[in-house]
Design brief:
Layout (H helix, E strand, L loop, with lengths): L1 E5 L10 E10 L4 E4 L6 E8 L2 E4 L3 E4 L4 E4 L5 E5 L5 E9 L21 H16 L4 H43 L7 H7 L4 H12 L3 H10 L1
């Protein structure tokens, strides 16, 4: 199932304009196979589950991972999990020499999941659906906001991932699977072998939100 929306004009900011954006709910076996890619740029974000990308080598992107594709680049990836996966995407036009803000295309980047980034994708979709005045520029500004957060997360987490990524990732997986449990902040800190204060600080630095807010968002979803 795909919830998607499209832009009716070529308006944008600094030569960048949105083509379409969507929220995908994927079942096992869903595959994208575009040997010649598309005529536009693509940002693909994994919100839930794992996606297998066939690049130079097979690469797995887990929750929070993302990838850019340039126009006419091969796009081949498949979902193989037993649970429903969730992905967001934005197709956009940009100048031929667009530098992707320093990111390499056809490369999977790994970051911790972000509720804020998911919300921004949803806001782009909503703007494309309602098409209020100046929606084209608002959509591009939200895309820039997403990319800015991805830059911040990749640079910040380079220093944190080596020490804390596995432990915080374990807690996030537990929250997603056992969100009805009443585990406390102290419980989660103990799982990570951290003090309450240290766990709270590291969790917020990596995810951009507090453990309580993160778990409440999971429950609402």
């Amino acid at each position: 199932m795909i919830f998607s929306a499209y832009q009716d004009t070529n308006k944008g900011i600094a030569g960048v304009s949105i083509v379409s954006s969507g929220h995908i709910f994927a079942q096992k076996g869903r595959k994208i196979d575009r040997p010649n890619g598309r005529s536009d740029y693509l940002l693909f974000y994994i919100a839930k589950g794992k996606e297998h990308f066939f690049l130079k080598n097979e690469t797995v992107g887990d929750e929070g991972s993302f990838i850019f594709f340039r126009p006419l680049e091969k796009q081949e990836h498949i979902y193989l999990e037993n649970i429903t996966g969730e992905f967001y995407y934005v197709h956009f036009n940009a100048p031929e020499d667009f530098d992707l803000f320093g990111f390499e295309s056809s490369t999977v980047y790994h970051t911790m999941p972000s509720i804020k980034i998911r919300d921004l994708f949803e806001e782009i979709i909503s703007e494309l659906q309602t098409k209020q005045p100046a929606y084209e520029m608002i959509c591009v500004s939200k895309l820039f906001h997403i990319i800015s957060l991805l830059i911040r997360k990749t640079e910040k987490e380079l220093t944190l991932q080596g020490r804390y990524f596995d432990r915080i990732s374990f807690v996030i997986q537990k929250m997603n699977k056992e969100y009805q449990n009443n585990d406390s902040l102290d419980d989660y800190a103990e799982m990570c072998n951290m003090s309450r204060f240290h766990f709270l600080r590291i969790f917020k630095e990596i995810t951009g939100t507090s453990p309580l807010e993160y778990k409440n968002n999971i429950r609402l979803e």
